[in-house]
Amino acid sequence: MMTIKKLGGPLGALGLAGCMLLVLLYPEASLDAALRGMAVWWDVLFPSLFPFFVISELMLGFGVVHLFGALFDPLMRPLFRIPGSGGFVLAMGYVSGYPVGARLTAKLREQNLLTRVEGERLVACTTSSDPIFLLGAVSVGFFHNPVLGPCLALAHYGSGLLVGLLMSFHGRREERNGAGRTPAPDTSRSGKPKRERPEAGRIRTAFASMAEARRRDGRTLGELLKGAVESSLKLIIVVGGLVVFFTVLMELLNQAGAMAFLFSAIGRFLSVFGFPPGLAEAVTSGFFEVTLGAKAAGTAAAALPFKAAAAAFVLSWGGLSVHAQVSSIWNGTGLRYLPFAAARLLHAFLSALLTLLLWRPMMNASPALAPLWTPGPILHTPASAFMLLALLLAGTLLLSLAAAAAASVLGNLRRSRR
């Protein structure tokens, strides 16, 4: 490990020097790639992510996250071994896509509402593509096949939840040893010893947690809004810079012939396991940048099920560009990259496998569902995203209340038998 750390600095410097040399050799290609990256950031990422960044900051300031944390705790803690506030992060991450889940996880970690292990579990299952990109850009735009939407969505989000369940086993030894415990209690506990409460009492406790969080914050609405806009602008600029960097990096590697070499090597590797070598460009491009990988999957020389599986793999892996965004957001929180990378790789393989397993039954049912899944103009508005967020939160709340009621009934039955 120490040898790797010692070699990391010189190797990184050598890589950056090589990138600088390629920029000098191919200045026109570098400029064109940078402009393409800027266009993606300005036309797609800024309008889709910036409102969610601002609103999530305001929700934290007003204590809304603490409210949902108290309500969702009976569901999230037994299933995923994370506090109830993770339910809100899960809904926001699924609606708005990466890296919003990582952003909210980092904010909860900064407020000492998550341990390091809980934060790593949470971000493992909340880093996902947003539905508009998956259904609109990928299914309709890249594949020209809206029937593909339900299968891709079920594989992507279903495997994400499976990753969350599997990651609940992550860090249990560390928790048993008492390392990294949160000094401040979770808002679902409200500073009091946890005990069984009826649903009405839980709701009252949730609103009390929200009021207490708002009192501790203490900022006026103007101060909250100013802080939310400032921090969100800083973050969206970092996201844009990383998108431009990786777009230029891939273009430079392509100009230098490195991408062609990687395509050939990955193609041979895929053929060994019986997969079409035509998927090599999609997998390789998706390793660096998710949009380019998904687009390459739509035009790959392979059967449609394998192309869909490659797109699911790329969407779940996220690309090194998203990984870099998440790492920059995590700076100073103590969260580790290795568990995140392992979760992304697991999510990618599970998503591709589920796509192949669900292909026949889902594609037989998809033609009737295609009109429901094809994003029309109205579904590209921010209002539609917030409607979906409200539906997810309402569904999670109902499941949480049902879980709390079931736990209460089981507890009463056990006490009555004694």
What does this 3D model show about the protein?
The chain has 418 residues and is mainly α. It has one domain. Helices cover 80% and strands 0% of the residues. It is built from 18 helices and no strands. It has helices at 2-25, 27-62, 64-80, 85-96, 100-110, 116-126, 131-142, 149-167, 172-176, 199-217, 221-255, 258-272, 280-288, 290-298, 304-317, 319-330, 337-373, 382-417. The longest helix has 37 residues, at 337-373. The radius of gyration is 23 Å and the shape is globular. The model is unreliable at 182-197 and 375-380 (pLDDT under 50). This is Sporulation integral membrane protein YlbJ. InterPro entries: Gate_dom, Spore_IM_YlbJ. Residues 175-201 are annotated as: Disordered. Keywords: Membrane, Transmembrane, Transmembrane helix. It holds the Pfam family Gate.
Q: Characterize the overall form.
A: globular
Roughly how many Å is the radius of gyration?
23 Å
Sequence of secondary-structure elements = HHHHHHHHHHHHHHHHHH
Task: Tell me roughly what share of residues is in helical segments.
Answer: over 70%
The biggest sheet amounts to: none
Count of domains: 1
What's the end-to-end separation, in Å?
54 Å
In quaternary terms, these chains amount to: single chain
DSSP strand tally = 0
Low-pLDDT parts are 182-197, 375-380
| Estimated structural class | mainly alpha
What proportion of the residues form beta strands (DSSP E)? Answer: under 5%
Protein name: Sporulation integral membrane protein YlbJ
Keywords: Membrane, Transmembrane, Transmembrane helix
Organism: Paenibacillus forsythiae
